[in-house]
Write a structure and sequence with these properties.
It is a single chain. With 173 residues, the protein is α+β, with helices and mostly antiparallel strands. The chain contains four helices and six strands, in the order αβββαβββαα. It has helices at 3-6, 58-82, 147-153, 155-165, and strands spanning 20-29, 32-39, 48-51, 117-124, 131-136, 142-146. Strands 1-2-3 form a three-stranded antiparallel beta sheet, with helices on one face.
């Protein structure tokens, strides 16, 4: 956008575009995933809950989901190491908060769920390895999967993800 375009006053029909700085939290409301967003240039008290389907920041969502998975893995490891002192509590759907992002120790996720991949929503290199946020056919759930596993198990989905993000620049010489 040129300087002259950026100085034009916005018409009333144009909506101001807000930029997401980071995803703070996740929740499930009436079966729909919502994310608490920190907006770039705005204070924390202006954070808002937004439905997943209204968002266009797959990389930030993937990064958040990856960080949540890592936090939950650490929490699970810590609980397992201290569980020797306490009797083990059986993990059931009733004692795991729905939408909390927690992964039950016996829960199947990723390609182990035997679902067909539909689309890659985003990518992250959190933890030093490339990972994809995968959407599955016939399911509203998403999972973080290793890119090297996706490359083997669903190469066409991976190719489509990269093709959608590929931009060509013209050579004016």
């Amino acid at each position: 956008m040129s300087d002259s375009e950026s100085n034009k006053p916005q018409s009333e029909s144009e909506e101001e575009e807000y930029v997401v700085e980071r995803v703070v939290k996740k929740r499930l409301v009436a079966g729909k995933v919502q994310y608490l967003l920190k907006w770039k240039g705005y204070p924390e008290e202006d954070n808002t809950w937004e439905p997943k389907e209204h968002l266009d920041c797959p990389d930030l969502i993937a990064e958040f989901e990856s960080q949540e998975a890592a936090r939950n893995a650490k929490k699970t490891n810590k609980e397992n190491s201290t569980s020797k002192a306490k009797p083990a509590k059986e993990t059931t759907a009733s004692n795991v908060t729905k939408g909390s992002g927690s992964v039950k120790s016996n829960e199947v996720y990723g390609f182990d769920r035997k679902l067909e991949p539909e689309k890659i929503l985003g990518a992250t290199d959190a933890g030093g390895e490339l990972k994809f946020l995968m959407k599955w056919k016939g399911s509203d759930q998403t999972d973080i999967v290793l890119a090297k596993e996706a490359n083997v198990k669903c190469p066409q989905v991976v190719i489509k993800f990269y093709e959608d993000r590929l931009t060509w620049t013209g050579n004016d010489s």
